[in-house]
């Protein structure tokens, strides 16, 4: 359990560092590039998300296999052969991606994106550089998966923070000292991705146990793992369609400037997933181990504890951000126009992301059982729901329509998915998840946030806005944490330890 706690803390430190860096640099990018060029930055992220399906399930499979093999004996050689095999596959994938984007960059610049002031030749050049950067970032994801499967979260997150500083600060310096253009920005992304890819690869190989002979490409390993990988391809395609279809539609149907505002809204909407993922990533190897060992009672306790942690991490922060969204965007960017145009869409997108975040642990529970059917079916149903709704609403309401469709789709799929996940893997535990793991933190945190929004006047100072939001979040998070029995016991023990009080506290 100490390793789980250590990995969770490491993941949160890494993710917190990533969040701080990302939200610190975005206003600077907006200042140097302008909202239209920032729309191209969003298109880069969209391209990276769309091309996630070319992973072919290799990253998820490598992570699961590393977690599974690491608890078995005499598997060092197999682990190294598996990594070398997947590396060769990814070399072909990366080259194909780079070539594909290079060829289609002029078409995207001229026929897809609706640019205003930016010349199409500059857009095409930036997209080509971005394609090469993506070709280097994709294999980095494979190595990330291997490290996480080995539970090397401390090393992984240390490198993530270092890379985030290098990439973000370097981009700011390039834009400030050399050229405030999208071309310069894209070139730096290419360079920083190359450095990170080499560093993460070296870290993973050094983290594997030594074995003889040297690692080699092994077709048998592909045969042994293809079924899980193939299922993950289906899940990835559905996930890609769900997460990226709105961005693809907005980039095609609306001007690049509005896509910039939608990218800004999407950055804020990613907060719940950013907060939930560190817990999911940390507990997945442990979940897999408990499933493999058949320890049902321990699995139930561990599962509910993880779900409660996600609720405490996600709900107070995300609901506070939703309540103060417009004011937060102004305090963050200094732009009243950005707050007006991106705020409503950001609130709607954030609502859908909250639902996605609380489903992360059930999602990993299914993967720990090696079952991909439920996750795949969820993806298919969600895609069928969202695509026609999305196109219709964007045509009628612009970027707000994208937010509405995302929220409605998640509201429709949540009860169905949660019901079948618990019926299949943890019968009898559904209402514990609803009432205790999610219900209690929500019922306690939400009134605190709403009451604070009603009672306190919005400060005129941007700094005081952050301070007020931080206070509201802290109080609501602390109140939510007390509702989880295991956390409540730990809080009481800490109070007793630091205050010396041993009586009068609930047991």
Describe this structure in a few short sentences.
The protein is 86% helix and 0% strand.
Q: Could you please describe the fold and organization of this structure?
A:
With 507 residues, the chain is mainly α. It folds into two domains: 1-217, no CATH class; 255-507, no CATH class. Helices cover 86% and strands 0% of the residues. It contains 18 helices and no strands. The protein is globular, with a radius of gyration of 23 Å. The two termini are 22 Å apart. Residues 502-507 have low confidence and may be disordered.
| Number of separate strands | 0
Assembly state here? single chain
Mean pLDDT comes to 83
Order of helices and strands: HHHHHHHHHHHHHHHHHH
Given the helix and strand composition, which structural class is it?
A: mainly alpha
Overall shape: it is: globular
CA-CA gap between termini = 22 Å
The largest sheet, given as strand count, sense and whether it forms a barrel, is: none
Q: What's the helical proportion of residues? A: over 70%
* Number of individual domains: 2
Number of helices: 18
Q: Assess the beta-strand content as a share of residues.
A: under 5%
**Which parts are unreliable, with pLDDT below 50 for 5 consecutive residues or more?**
502-507
Radius of gyration, rounded?
23 Å
Task: Name the descriptors.
507 residues; mainly alpha; disordered C terminus
Which helices and strands appear, and what pairs or packs with what?
Elements: H1 2-50, H2 58-69, H3 76-112, H4 120-149, H5 153-178, H6 182-207, H7 219-253, H8 256-269, H9 271-293, H10 296-323, H11 325-333, H12 336-358, H13 360-368, H14 373-397, H15 399-425, H16 430-455, H17 462-482, H18 485-499
Helix pairs in contact: 1-4, 1-5, 1-7, 1-8, 1-9, 2-3, 2-4, 2-9, 3-4, 3-7, 4-6, 5-6, 7-14, 7-15, 8-12, 9-10, 9-12, 9-13, 10-12, 10-13, 10-16, 10-17, 11-12, 11-17, 12-15, 13-15, 14-15, 16-17
